[in-house]
Amino acid sequence: MKHLSILLALTALPSLAHAQNAQETKILEGIDARYDETASVARQIWEWAEVGYQEEKASGLLQQNLRAQGFKITSGVAEIPTAFVAEYGKGGPVIAILAEFDALPGINQDAVATRSPIEGKGAAHACGHNLFGAGSLEAAIAVKKWLDETGTPGRVRLYGTPAEEGGSGKVYMVRAGLFDDVDFALHWHAGDENSAAARMTLANRSAKFRFRGVSAHAAGAPEKARSALDGVEAFNLMVNMMREHVPQDSRIHYVITEGGTAPNVVPDFAEVFYYVRHPDPDGVDAIWKRMEDAARGAALGTGTEVDWEVIHGNNPLLVNETLAKMVDAKLRQVGGITYSAEEQKFAETIYASFDSPKLKLGSESEIQPYEVTLGYGSTDVGDVSYATPTVGLQTATWVPGTSAHSWQSSAASGMSIGFKGTQAAAKTLTLAAIELYSNPELRKEAKAEFDKARGPNYEYKSLLGDRDPPLDYRK
């Protein structure tokens, strides 16, 4: 009788697998059926192009769609008006899906294949966060439907996370404890390739250094003046000399945000906005202390005063290979992007504008090899990855060879190439969530890797300190 029971159980396995595959196929077909809705959300957020902490319309649109699907919404979390958490389901596990929606200031481009700024528009989705928000929205809806149809216990949460670009919105949400009961977090990003590589990032911190001097007529009474701009320039000179004497993987960049208004008026105020990056948070701290000393020295040498405000700070991504390999498999199941004839023409025109692109046109249909890599960007997803096991991917929402923060990325983010890549991301996230709900052994292995990577005595430390969210940093 015992042998008969085992035989019956083994015989049932193929039918169970078939049923699960049928459910997944149905869910993926549902994502395809909602293509127009997802593309509409992505395009609307692209048109608004709201910068960090000012994304009222984008945040509202995502919440509206989630509310219509039965999600419970908590708005204005972590003292951020545009941040929210939307939840559906009951019991556990709790799986978070991250959604970004802020635009970049200082860049502008229509959704066409040649350089074409839109008059009067001062920001654009040149990092594809309009796609990020829309794709994560679709994934959350698809997972919700799967939970309903299968009766699986678990909760799916969509985290509306504003101001990733220099505002560290997720850091404040982590700091507020909003991820304390999350079992796993999923995210994705727009890109020029399909990849689920375990990509580490750099830790970073930014601040606005503000110099104050004495104004006077530059020709009539220069001896009475102390130029705040001299302070900024002296500071920049010293930091630029530091570049020779910092670790190789460090990055330092700046922009002078205010330097005066007229050459014949010595400016009594000037401001420079700095970023510092390093693979390790302690490396950021070490460089930062030297920068602070340089700022004080520049002020002393120019007879000015200086203070600084830390704007944001992100920990590096803590990769989880157990989850990354699983997501890589799901991405390969979904597959790459296929262009229509019109999209191919668009892509060829864009591709011709690149200088020595690293990827070939046509690679949008491929999945890049799985590997562990170091990327030189930074993201506030890093702080989430220290709060809960986290995994992400990118899809070819842009023409292969496109750089983020470019007019070419903004162009593709507003049209069907971007929307197709968004669909691929939504499908992959959905399959990954289903696997996590269904596979307790995977959950156990991923959490064991997470605990080992953080260490037994880990304590979370934010690189931006205890400051409040800088809600006006883009104003």
UniProtKB/TrEMBL annotation:
Tell me the first and last residues of the signal peptide: 1-19
| Classification via InterPro entries | Amidohydrolase, Aminobenzoyl-glu_utiliz_pB, Bact_exopeptidase_dim_dom, Peptidase_M20, Peptidase_M20/M20A_hydrolases, Peptidase_M20_dimer
What single Pfam family name could you report for this chain, choosing any that match?
A: Peptidase_M20
Query: Which keywords describe this protein according to UniProt?
Result: Hydrolase, Signal
What range(s) does the Peptidase M20 dimerisation domain occupy? 206-297
What SUPFAM superfamilies would the database entry show?
Bacterial exopeptidase dimerisation domain (SSF55031), Zn-dependent exopeptidases (SSF53187)
Asked whether the UniProt record includes Ubl conjugation among its keywords, one would answer no
Q: Which domain of life is it from?
A: Bacteria
Q: Which PANTHER family match?
A: PEPTIDASE M20, XAA-ARG DIPEPTIDASE
What name does UniProt use for this protein? Answer: M20 family metallopeptidase
Annotated organism of origin? Parasphingorhabdus litoris
